[in-house]
Amino acid sequence: MAVIDINADLGEGFGIWELGDDLALLDVITSANVACGFHAGDPLIMRRVCAAAAERGVTIGAQVSYRDLAGFGRREMDVAAPELTAEILYQLAALDGIARTEGGRVSYVKPHGALYNRIARDAVQAAAVADAVRAYDPQLPLLTLPGSAVHEVADGLTVVAECFADRAYTPAGGLVSRREPGAVVHDADAVVQRAVRMAVEGTVVAVDGSEVALKARSICVHGDTPGAVALAQAVRSALSGAGVALEPFA
Asked: 3-state SS of the chain: helix, strand, coil percent to 5?
């Protein structure tokens, strides 16, 4: 039987600004990537999401990023390795401290946005992120793409591969840049079909029509897209209907 985790990005509001329906998504997903304040989120939002996740038994992950509130963490930055390591540590420790006061804890780390894509190809920045996780808790898994450079520099860390039901893929198995048209798949039926294919067959059709192999343990459905909750519900239902067991990886 295929086993998969469903994750989504949560806590991505800031102050009075809200993004997505965190509480509704927590009733669907098995793992929550919680923003740590650098690209979105603030202490109050972090606390609310962690409390709700702990109450529902949803695994909490630290969604760390570049320090880029204005750009929502989607602008690539050249940050010196020691500084990047320290900033990841800062975010990870902050969220874990809040999670523990609410009866939970951080169980994995998933970089966000530009940082996620950068460390997929940049071994120096990937090592800086890995160094932060290793310094804080070497038992914490890192969630990344199957072909990410993180796998090469993990040095004892657990690296978990994930796939994206609602993102377009390149023939090389990477994600199409959000600057390109069609980078996000909006057709609900297509997203559901892709999710089942990813979980059951371990493949996805790239933008050029070629079939790309990807062995992933977790599947991401973005929480900031229109109709995200209904889409996540449809993905979960289809996966269950296909005989896929839904279990967190951490």
From this structure: 35, 20, 45
